[in-house]
Design goal:
Helices cover 40% and strands 17% of the residues. It has 417 residues and is α/β, with parallel strands linked by helices. It has three domains: 3-145 and 253-296, D-Maltodextrin-Binding Protein, domain 2 (3-Layer(aba) Sandwich); 150-250, D-Maltodextrin-Binding Protein, domain 2, CATH 3.40.190.10; 301-416, Lysozyme (Orthogonal Bundle). The N and C termini lie close together (12 Å).
Length: 417
């Protein structure tokens, strides 16, 4: 997964939900992102990683665990890894001797393959520990927080489920590469003549995206971990969490490491025990991201919808002029500024599209006075069009992906994509 996929994951549904963060949340610069294609392959254990002063965390984009806001990376996994980085650097005074954790965003189904291939050192996601997976990798887990995998339905659907047996013959749409597939396949052994029709989602869709699809009536049934389902049920009014329909009960989740990295496993387990359920830090972090729904609900509020309505016609106007997708543009603007024309970044980026005045003045953009809302949207759209045409108008790049390349380049720079 490269920067295109990062942006696919963030922009698919950013128009429905906010990525605003809680007070005192850690943020890191966008430069801590390492696309997998520039990540050297190696399988070192902790001592050699310390010599490199670099640990690569494989992460999955998510509105709670790992996301980008205003050019910064945040989330529960980022917070946990930040604390782990501090523990690794305890007692080290010189900045150039400290170990840094960088982030390699990939799709969920690629976590273990990339780990085994040496493209990362920790698969830092909430991965359910299963027999099949433990044959491939080891896990660092505190084994204190148990997870139930629950059936989730659309409460307005005509489908009636009174027991797991009622899933027979029905289509269940689930996260690609997830343990839900393994556990649904085990259920299918119970009724082989009328199996559950397991549909794996496209690789860039998260469980959150799938629940949104369920909420909108696009699909009827999915399976999700209980803590995620219970959080999202607070802001998605049409989803029904079936606590009585459990696909797998009392499972454990953990971060994955290679089997030939015992030092890293031991060190991570020591750290995990400091942030596990029941510890002060562990409870604070979990509740900050999964115990409340305010940050998820922001874009569903009348105020946020009014922001969208207020600006959408201008985005349509300039998207049409430059033959771009206005929804992707407005999603980019929301990620950049929260649709706030008055925002000025520490680097001097201005307005709703967070454009530098020097970029707006460049001959390839040439739009004056970007402190004016319409000019800002015009300049940002024209710059996006320039990026797409100049750098990514290549027949070998799928038309769909050309725009995602441009979106990624808008933040990271075309040389880094």
């Amino acid at each position: 997964m490269n920067l295109i996929s990062i942006y696919k994951a963030f922009l698919v549904s950013i128009l429905l939900f906010s990525t605003s963060v809680a007070v005192a949340e850690v943020e890191h610069d966008f430069q801590r992102l390492v696309p997998n294609y520039v990540s050297e392959r190696y399988t070192d254990d902790l001592n050699k990683l310390k010599q490199r002063r670099l640990i690569r965390a494989l992460v999955v984009p998510s509105r709670t665990d790992f996301y980008i806001r205003n050019g910064k990376i945040s989330g529960l996994v980022v917070k946990l890894l930040d604390n782990y980085e501090k523990s690794l650097n305890k007692g080290i005074k010189k900045e150039d001797e400290k170990i840094q954790i960088v982030y390699v965003p990939i799709d969920f189904d690629q976590l273990i393959p990339y780990l085994l291939d040496g493209k990362g050192d920790i698969a830092a996601s909430f991965i359910t520990i299963t027999g099949a997976r433990t044959k491939l990798v080891d896990f660092a887990s505190s084994h204190t927080r148990t997870i139930n995998e629950l059936v989730i339905t659309n409460r307005n659907s005509n489908i009636s489920l009174s027991s797991l047996e009622d899933l027979a013959g029905k289509e269940v749409y689930v996260l690609k590469g997830s343990s839900y597939i393994e556990h649904l396949e085990q259920l299918n052994k119970t009724w082989p003549d009328n199996p559950i029709k397991i549909v794996e989602a496209q690789e860039h869709l998260s469980s959150e995206d799938i629940m949104e699809m369920l909420n909108e009536g696009i699909i009827d049934i999915t399976v999700v971990d209980d803590f995620k389902a219970n959080l999202w049920a607070k802001v998605l009014p049409n989803i029904e969490v079936r606590d009585d329909l459990i696909i797998n009960s009392s499972g454990f989740v953990g971060w994955a490491i290679r089997k030939n990295n015992p030092e890293l496993k031991q060190d991570l387990e020591l750290f995990k025990n400091k942030v596990k359920k029941g510890t002060l830090l562990g409870n604070i972090l979990f509740n900050q991201y999964y115990g409340r729904d305010q940050k998820l609900a922001n874009l569903r509020s009348p105020e946020e919808r009014e922001k969208f309505s207020k600006h959408v016609e201008l985005f349509k106007k300039y998207a049409d002029q430059y033959e771009l997708d206005y929804l992707k543009l407005i999603a980019q603007a929301y990620q950049e500024s929260g649709l706030n024309q008055h925002l000025v970044s520490p680097r001097g980026a201005v307005g709703i599209m967070q454009l530098l005045p020097s970029t707006a003045a460049d001959k390839n953009v040439d739009v004056a006075n970007i402190k004016v809302l319409e000019n800002n949207i015009h300049a940002g759209t024209k710059y996006m069009s320039f990026l797409k045409t100049r750098y990514f108008d290549d027949p070998e790049i799928k038309v769909e992906d050309q725009m995602f390349f441009a979106l990624a380049a808008y933040n990271a720079g075309p040389a880094n994509v």
